[in-house]
Structure formats: C-alpha cells, structure tokens
Amino acid sequence: MRCRNMNSNCNRKVLRMVDIQTISIAVASATVAVAAVSIIMQNRKAEKTRRTQLMMQLFGPMRDFEFMRQWVEIVLTWEWKDFDDWMKKYFQNPNEWPKFIYVSSYFNGLGLLLKMKLIDFETISSWHPEATLWLWEKVGPMIQEGHKRLITSGKWKMKYRPEEWFEYLYNEMKKREQQPASKTT
Fold first, then answer.
1. d(CA 134, CA 76)
2. At residue 24, what are phi and psi to the nearest 5 degrees?
3. 164-178 and 129-146 are packed helices; what angle lies between their axes, rounded to 10 degrees?
4. Parts of the chain with a pLDDT under 70
5. pLDDT at 184
C-alpha cells in the first residue's frame, strides 16, 4: 500500500515502524554496551581475586613457622670459616643440608617465576624483600664457590646451576634497590 497523501494514516504507520526499528536498535546497542561493561568489571574482579590468591600461595611459606625457624637458623646461627668448613658443617650434614634446600628452593622458585615473567617484581618485593637479601648475602658466596669448585670444574655433572634463580632474584632486588626512587609530582 503506497501513501499518496502526506497526511494519511499510511505515513504514520511508516514513521511508527521506523521509530520502532530505531528504538529496538538503540535498546540492542545499549544491552551490548551494558554486557561489555559488566564483563570488564567481572574480569577485573576475577583478576584481583587471582592476584590475591597468588600472593597468599607465594608467601605461604613465609608465614609457616617451620620455614621461618629454618630461615632464622640459617641467617642468624650458621657460621663457617671458609667453603671447606661450610661443606663439612652444612652440606655433608644430613640434619642441616635439608634445611638449606627447603629454604633456598623457595627463593629459587620465586626467582624462576620472576625470570619467566609469571609474577612481577612488585609482587615479590612487597613481601619482606629483606628475607631474600639477607639469606643470599649469608649463603650466596658459598653457593657461588660451590658452583665454581664442583660444577664448573666438572666434578659434578649438572645441566643447570643450582640456585641460579635465587641469585637472579637477589640481583634484581639489588639492582632496583640501587635505582633512585622515581619522583611523583
């Protein structure tokens, strides 16, 4: 049915159809926009929850009494004259060496996660960075000497360097510690 007269009911019907189409397009567009905003908000909340869970899992050992007791023992009570003395007292001692492995492997794991960019530096450094620094400064020279004497010399056949990610973590912390603080204005 064609409209011949501008004042006819036909023109009103066409206008109403256009209005209904426009309104339905606007409603559909608004629905899509609301859904997109909702998804973005849900993703942000989920990301925050995942980061919180990651923090709690990563730093669980630091809240564990036995882990902290062994960390404190290593940092505050272990003493040695030189590498050979350290080897006798700790490496060759079946009661002491597992303590070192237990504690140092945690920091080695954090360093590996950082190197692989699975966690960011701010996440690691926000939770007792001194624990990493103090432990490495205590035992790092012995680890490096052991690497030199036992692995590099060929006495031990290993595909990787023990505690290399712990050393990486320590070096990253020292590097950032030495950088001037950024100024915010």
1. 10
2. -65, -35
3. 130
4. 1-18, 153-160, 180-185
5. 44
List the domain boundaries for the chain: 8-57, 59-177
CB neighbours (10 Å) of residue 128?
A: 13
Separation between Cα atoms, residue 144 and residue 167, nearest integer Å: 9
Torsion 162-168-171-173 (CA) sign: negative
Confirm if 111 and 167 have CB atoms less than 8 A apart: yes
Q: Cα–Cα distance between 151 and 162 in angstroms, integer?
A: 9
Which tens digits make up the pLDDT trace of 78-109?
999 999 999 999 989 999 999 999 999 999 99
Q: Are 173 and 127 in contact (CB under 8 A)?
A: no
Model pTM score: 0.69
pLDDT at 185: 40
Amino acid identity at 53:
Q
Other CB atoms within 10 A of residue 141 CB: 13
Report d(CA 146, CA 107) in Å as an integer: 18
Tell me the H-state helices in the chain.
9-58, 60-63, 65-72, 83-86, 97-115, 121-125, 129-146, 164-178
Is there a contact between 86 and 142 (Cβ–Cβ < 8 Å)? yes
